[in-house]
C-alpha cells in the first residue's frame, strides 16, 4: 500500500517537472525494469509456495534450505542479465534508439540506466528473502519497513522535483529509500534464520522443484503483465510523440496502482492457501474466495464509475495539466481495472489449489494476443483502441476460463465426502 501511495505522489511530480518528453522516458525505463525483473524466473513465488507447504507439513528447516537454494540461483541469473545489459547500454546506441522521439538537450538516460541496474540487482536478491517471510506469514514487518522507506522517498521526490528536477535525481529519490528499508528488513530475517551466506550451495534436490514451479509462475501473470502493461507503454512510446505517450503512460500507471491496491486484499492468501489446501480445509478456502472476489468488486466499483464518467478531468487534476488522455482511453481503463482485479483473485486461488499451469497458460495467452493487437493499433496510429483491445482480450482469455475453472474446483472439493 505504501508503494502505491509513493507512485501517486511521484508520477505527477515527474510528469510536471520533467515534461512530457522526460516523463515518457521515465515511464519507458519503468517498462524496461519490469522486463529485467522477470529474470528471476518466478523463483520468489515458487519459494513462497514450497516453504509454506513444507512448514504446514512440519518441516521446520525448509525455509533455510529453500532460501539458500533460491538465493544462489537468483544471484546467478542477475549476474547473467547484468553481463548482457551493461555492455549494451555502454557501447551501443540502444538508449538513443529506444528514446529517439523523446530525447532533448536535458535528457541524460545513461546515468539513469546504470542506477536502475543497481536497483534491479538489489531488488531481485531482496525479493527472495521476502518470499520466505511471506511464507512464514510475517510480512507485517516488511510492510512496516517499506512504509517508512516510502515516506522518506515521497519527501525526497518532492524535494528533488521542486528544486533540481532531473531524471536520475527523481529515480534515485523514488528507489533508494525503499531499497534501504527492504535491505534492513532482509538483514533481520537472515539473522533470525541464522544463515551463513558463505555456506549457500545449489547442491540440493530442491532447486529443480523451485525452477519448475518458478517457470510456471513467471509464464503466467509476470510475462502477461509485462506484455499487456510495460510493453504497451514502451510500444506507445516508440510510435507516438511525447504528449500522447506520456498521457497513455499516466493512465496505464493509474490502472496498475488501483489494481495493486485491490491485490493487497489477497496477498496474504499466497502463503495461507497452500497450507489450507494441504490440511483439506476447503470450507475456509471457499469462504475466502467469496470474500476476496466481493472485496475486489466493491473496491474497484468507485474508480470504475469515476473513470467512465470523469476520466480526463481526473487525470488533468492529478497531473496538473501535464497529460491529456482521451475519454475513450480512461473509460475502458476503468473497465480494465475491474477485470485485472478479478484476474489476481482467480490466479491466487487456482495456483494455491494446484492449478497453476492451467491459470498460467491462459494468462500467458492473453498477454501474447494483447500485445500483438496493441502493436497493430499503435502502428496504425489508433491510440484510443489500446485499452479497448486489452479489455476484450482479457474477457476472452482470462476472465471466462479462469473463473469457470475455479468455480468448478471449489464445487468439486466441497462436495467430496
Helices and strands, with pairings:
Blueprint: H1 2-37, H2 43-56, H3 62-91, H4 94-98, H5 109-135, H6 139-163, H7 167-193, H8 206-218, H9 221-239, H10 242-263, H11 269-279, H12 282-318, H13 327-352, H14 356-379, H15 385-414
Helix pairs in contact: 1-5, 1-6, 1-7, 1-9, 1-10, 2-3, 2-5, 2-8, 2-11, 3-5, 5-7, 6-7, 8-14, 9-10, 9-14, 10-12, 10-13, 11-13, 12-13, 13-14, 13-15, 14-15
Question: Would you mind describing this structure in some detail?
Answer:
- With 417 residues, the chain is an all-alpha fold.
- It folds into two domains: 1-214, no CATH class; 219-411, no CATH class.
- It has helices spanning 2-37, 43-56, 62-91, 94-98, 109-135, 139-163, 167-193, 206-218, 221-239, 242-263, 269-279, 282-318, 327-352, 356-379, 385-414.
- α1 (2-37) packs across α5 (109-135), α13 runs antiparallel to α14 and α13 (327-352) packs parallel to α15.
- The longest helix is centred in the last third of the chain and has 37 residues, at 282-318.
- The radius of gyration is 21 Å and the shape is globular.
- The mean pLDDT is 82.
Amino acid at each position: 500500500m505504501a508503494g502505491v501511495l509513493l507512485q501517486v505522489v511521484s508520477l505527477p511530480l515527474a510528469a510536471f517537472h520533467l515534461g512530457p518528453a522526460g516523463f515518457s522516458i521515465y515511464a519507458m525505463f519503468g517498462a524496461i525494469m519490469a522486463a529485467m525483473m522477470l529474470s528471476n524466473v518466478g523463483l520468489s513465488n515458487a519459494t513462497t509456495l514450497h516453504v509454506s507447504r513444507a512448514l504446514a507439513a512440519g518441516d521446520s528447516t525448509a525455509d533455510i534450505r529453500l532460501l539458500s537454494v533460491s538465493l544462489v540461483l537468483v544471484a546467478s541469473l542477475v549476474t547473467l542479465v547484468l553481463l548482457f545489459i551493461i555492455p549494451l547500454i555502454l557501447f551501443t546506441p540502444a538508449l538513443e534508439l529506444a528514446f529517439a522521439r523523446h530525447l532533448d538537450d536535458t535528457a541524460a538516460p545513461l546515468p539513469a540506466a546504470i542506477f536502475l541496474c543497481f536497483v534491479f540487482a538489489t531488488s531481485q536478491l531482496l525479493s527472495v528473502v521476502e518470499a520466505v517471510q511471506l511464507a512464514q506469514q510475517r510480512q507485517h514487518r516488511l510492510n512496516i519497513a517499506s512504509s517508512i522507506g516510502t515516506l522518506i522517498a515521497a519527501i525526497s521526490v518532492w524535494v528533488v522535483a521542486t528544486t533540481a528536477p532531473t531524471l536520475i535525481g527523481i529515480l534515485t529519490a523514488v528507489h533508494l529509500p525503499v531499497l534501504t528499508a527492504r535491505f534492513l528488513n532482509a538483514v533481520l530475517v537472515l539473522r533470525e534464520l541464522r544463515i551463513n551466506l558463505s555456506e549457500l550451495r545449489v547442491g540440493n534436490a530442491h532447486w529443480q522443484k523451485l525452477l519448475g514451479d518458478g517457470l510456471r509462475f513467471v509464464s503466467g501473470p509476470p510475462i502477461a503483465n509485462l506484455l499487456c502493461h510495460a510493453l504497451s507503454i514502451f510500444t506507445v512510446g516508440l510510435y507516438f510523440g511525447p504528449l500522447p505517450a506520456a498521457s497513455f503512460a499516466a493512465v496505464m500507471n493509474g490502472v496498475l496502482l488501483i489494481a495493486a491496491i485491490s491485490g493487497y486484499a489477497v496477498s496474504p492468501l499466497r502463503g495461507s492457501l497452500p497450507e489450507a489446501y494441504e490440511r483439506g480445509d476447503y470450507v475456509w478456502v471457499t469462504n475466502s474466495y467469496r470474500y476476496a472476489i466481493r472485496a475486489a468488486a466493491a473496491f474497484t466499483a468507485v474508480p470504475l464509475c469515476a473513470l467512465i464518467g470523469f476520466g480526463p478531468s481526473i487525470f488533468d487534476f492529478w497531473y496538473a495539466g501535464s497529460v491529456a488522455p482521451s475519454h475513450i482511453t480512461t473509460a475502458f481503463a476503468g473497465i480494465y481495472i475491474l477485470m485485472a482485479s478479478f484476474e489476481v483473485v482467480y490466479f491466487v486461488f487456482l495456483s494455491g489449489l494446484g492449478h497453476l499451469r492451467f491459470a498460467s497458460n491462459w494468462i500467458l495467452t492473453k498477454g501474447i494476443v494483447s500485445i500483438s493487437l496493441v502493436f497493430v493499433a499503435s502502428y496504425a496510429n489508433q491510440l484510443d483502441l489500446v485499452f479497448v483491445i486489452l479489455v476484450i482480450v482479457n474477457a476472452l482469455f482470462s476472465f471466462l476460463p479462469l473463473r469457470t475453472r475455479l468455480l468448478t474446483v471449489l464445487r468439486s472439493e466441497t462436495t467430496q465426502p
